[in-house]
Amino acid sequence: MAVYSFWIFDRHCNCIYSREWVAITQDKPDHQQEQTQKNITNTGTINARNQDHVAKLLFGAIFSLKQISSKLNPQEETTANNLKSFSTLKYRCHFFETGTGLKFCLLTDPKTENMQFVLKEIYAKLYYEKIVKNVLSPVDFKENEYIDNEVFITGVDNYISSLAVFNN
Amino acid sequence: MSNQLHQTVVETDVDNDFEKQINVSCLEYLLMELGPLALRITDKLEKYSSSSTRESNGSGNGNDNKQVDDFHYGGVELFQNESLVSNEINNQMLDNFGFQIGKILIEQLIFLKNDGISTKMDEILDIMKIIARDVWKMIYQKQIDNLRTNHRGTFVLIDNSHRLISSMYGPDKHRISGLYLNFSCGVIKGVLNQSAFKANVEADLKSDGSVHYTIVVI
Amino acid sequence: MSSKSYKSLSDDIWKNRVDKINSEVFTLTYGSIVAQLCRDFTYAEVNTQLEKMGYNIGLRLVEEFFAKTGLGRCTSFKDTSEVISKIGFKMFLNITPTVTNWSGDGKQFSLILDDNPLTDFVELPEDNNAANELWYSNVLCGVLRGCLEMVQLDCDVYFVSDVLRGDPITEMRLKLNKFLKDEVPAGEE
């Protein structure tokens, strides 16, 4: 079980955080890194792909799937038909969206079980504590403004490293 | 008999009101917002005082005005405005906020401790202890970690982690935390003032994240 | 979600997921701030500054709301009113205002506050225009406006009456101006 990358998009459709441990496109020849990683801190790239076509494609895919799933809602207005994840042959994208339009995505190998709880934890314990409660951090990011808060970045890395599913 | 009943009723009411509870975040957000508030007020006051000169000069910095009023990003834009942040008036303003709150809190504390009788505290050390224990607990939900004195009018209060400042992160951290420390110093001054003591209070943010308040009683 | 389940959710959040303090310090701190603003500005300007304060607070507070409740966006403005009054106010100020006075088009409603921690033991000065011009708790309007904007609702929030001013009840009015359209990525229109 491996984790490939972690992305945060805001309600303005901008990618405000990208953390990539294993590249999902052919651009970087790092496919050998798919063995389990014990500690992923200090590896991979941080905020290197925010303007990338990969980020835009990922966001586009999520956006379209959300639109489709809300249209294909059998229960009409009582409960929203929320997107949980989608899988391809090579990866599974776990998705969580907050009421404020923040979209958290985690890309893992296709066999990983539902990781929405991970994204919810990251939102409630890391994003809220380190970004929202930080007086110096914006709550609404401008274009080209990214999360570069080291405490947040290390926190996410450590939390994901500690998950049992990635440690066997 | 009827007098006794009346007394009981009154006491219960008072107890209930003092035990009213709210989410601690409300107080935290309020204190957090004191920084941007001070910056906005300073800017407004400067504009009022310079508006007459601007009219006579015929020129104006209309762009600056728009910048301060139209921010949308939760106060962060204000912090990035160099000229605004470096204005000395902000420090005084936050100091004053703290001062007023310190005054009111010590009154409440002494009122509560002495069953409604206001007494003046004579011992400076006792007041320092109240600041370190009770006042800090009320505002920051934690006590001062260390209280030192040379028994000759100088005190050092050490707070290992200031609630607001320890959650700050960013390039402006040192500058902006200095701004908020004025508030804490003001609280101490306010408490002392209400107890008829005058002191110089300085706060120092150390590299390990702890804050040292040095209080020299005049 | 039904009205009853909102209540049990909010009770659960208040009991288990919220750190609580005595409201006293909060009331005194806020009162001190208002008093100082009144020294430097006209009451109209004080109202504006309190609202701006609230707006900034609302932008952050809303994330705590979603993080702790686990709710998603509401499906209707009516639902929004229920969530605000039963969960929002409860988990922050431990009060539950009443929702009334819906407008015909369903875009406006009032919140009646029976209890307001901000105003405990507060009396407005009698000798000037405070009772006619100052909205003491105006920060609450800003908080609501900020929160609602983060969920794409452009609203006006304002006080209609306040017991501090001698009115019989304390009433806030929320008016929905428009839904801010969810932004779409370039090329998707």
From TrEMBL, chain A:
- Work out whether the entry's keyword set contains Transmembrane helix: no
GO biological processes: endoplasmic reticulum to Golgi vesicle-mediated transport
* Residue ranges of coiled coil: none
GO CC field = endoplasmic reticulum; TRAPPI protein complex; TRAPPII protein complex; TRAPPIII protein complex
**Main location, first listed in the record:** endoplasmic reticulum
Q: Any idea which GO molecular function terms this record carries?
A: guanyl-nucleotide exchange factor activity
What are the alphabetically sorted keywords of the record?
Endoplasmic reticulum, ER-Golgi transport, Golgi apparatus, Transport
- Transmembrane segment boundaries: none
Which compartment or compartments is the protein found in?
Endoplasmic reticulum; Golgi apparatus, cis-Golgi network
User: Looking at the record's lineage, which domain of life comes first?
Assistant: Eukaryota
Family to which this protein belongs: Belongs to the TRAPP small subunits family. BET5 subfamily.
Query: Subunit comment for this entry?
Result: Part of the multisubunit transport protein particle (TRAPP) complex.
Which protein, by its recorded name, is this? Trafficking protein particle complex subunit
What is the protein's species of origin?
Answer: Pachysolen tannophilus NRRL Y-2460
TrEMBL record, chain B:
Q: Where is it found, in Gene Ontology cellular component terms? A: cis-Golgi network; phagophore assembly site; trans-Golgi network; TRAPPI protein complex; TRAPPII protein complex; TRAPPIII protein complex
Q: Secretion signal: which residues?
A: none
Instruction: Provide the GO biological process annotations.
Output: endoplasmic reticulum to Golgi vesicle-mediated transport; positive regulation of macroautophagy; protein localization to phagophore assembly site; protein-containing complex assembly; protein-containing complex localization
Source species, domain of life = Eukaryota
Q: Which InterPro entries match?
A: NO_sig/Golgi_transp_ligand-bd, TRAPP_component, TRAPPC6/Trs33
The record's comment on protein family reads: Belongs to the TRAPP small subunits family. BET3 subfamily.
The protein here is known as Trafficking protein particle complex subunit 6B
Species annotation: Pachysolen tannophilus NRRL Y-2460
TrEMBL record, chain C:
Keywords from UniProt, A to Z, are: Endoplasmic reticulum, ER-Golgi transport, Golgi apparatus, Transport
The compartments listed are: Endoplasmic reticulum; Golgi apparatus, cis-Golgi network
Q: Which CDD domains match?
A: TRAPPC3_bet3
- GO CC entries: endoplasmic reticulum; Golgi apparatus; TRAPP complex
SUPFAM superfamilies of this UniProt entry?
Answer: Ligand-binding domain in the NO signalling and Golgi transport
Q: Could you state one GO biological process linked to this protein?
A: macroautophagy
Stored InterPro entries: Bet3, NO_sig/Golgi_transp_ligand-bd, TRAPP_component
Record family assignment: Belongs to the TRAPP small subunits family. BET3 subfamily.
The molecule here is called Trafficking protein particle complex subunit BET3
